[in-house]
Amino acid sequence: MSTLSFSLDPSAAQTTPSQRTQYPIVTGTSVVGLKYKGGVMLAADTLCSYGSMAKYKDARRIRTVGTNTIIGASGEYSDFQSIMDTLEGHTQDDINYDDGHKSDAKSIHSYLRAIMYQRRSKMNPLWNDLVIAGSGFLGYVDKIGTTYEDDFIATGFGSYLAIPILRSKWRPDLTEGEARALLEDCLRVLFYRDCRALNRIQIAKVAEGETGVVSEPYELETNWEGAGFESTKGGMEGDGGW
């Protein structure tokens, strides 16, 4: 018959391997961004899900960094909060040096690439996909440090559902109003098709020569009367489930 034994030796506790976060818990979904004539614009909803439960409906996933950069994040919300704490310290360092230099969006993009790759290399990644925007700049960084720049970007389910819309309708000479309407169309489709999305959204912009602005949340108008939403699926009677 086996017996349980306990040790008071402090070194015994050090034999347990270091544990890392294996998957995100409280998550936000897509961020969509595009360039338009005279600026850059981002959009995201305000929902954070706890697993499959729509738990937090005022989680704001677009923030300003300094005066001329905005950042949006998909993925683990607590990791995004940690990233923002780091960026706020970086911005304060710029102020403290008082040398007339301020980090622009491209510098922030490069800085975040180094942070994300360093955490990935330690097998303890920050579970976020980030979109960074500034005057004339739009870039992406993921949790393993992969980066690119483009005229339009989408994360999460948006990379499947919003990118085809943007490829079809984006033009380099979009006005601010047209850019806003296009982003709203993308988020409306995501609300219809992504079960982790919400129709309560925020829009942010950085116009050339101006500071970044993030709107207060507002609700998109939606319409569920389309035939695709009303007909049964899979030839089954009932509520349209599979």
- What profile does the largest beta sheet have? 8 strands, antiparallel
Indicate the overall shape: globular
| Cα-to-Cα separation, first versus last residue | 52 Å
Output the radius of gyration.
Answer: 21 Å
Estimated helix fraction: 25-40%
- Number of helical segments? 6
Sequence of secondary-structure elements? EEEEEEEHHEEEEHHHEEEH
User: What is the arithmetic mean of pLDDT?
Assistant: 88
Could you tell me the number of beta strands?
Answer: 14
Briefly note the structural class of the backbone.
alpha+beta
Query: Could you tell me the strand content as a percent range?
Result: 25-35%
* Poorly predicted parts: none
Report on this structure.
The chain is of the alpha+beta class and 242 residues long. Helix content is 29%, strand content 27%. The protein contains six helices and 14 strands. The strands form two sheets. Strands 1, 4, 5, 6, 7, 8, 9 and 10 form an eight-stranded antiparallel β-sheet that branches. Strands 2, 3, 11, 12, 13 and 14 form a six-stranded antiparallel β-sheet that branches. Strand 4 and strand 5 form a beta hairpin. The longest helix is centred in the middle third of the chain and has 21 residues. The chain is globular, with a radius of gyration of 21 Å.
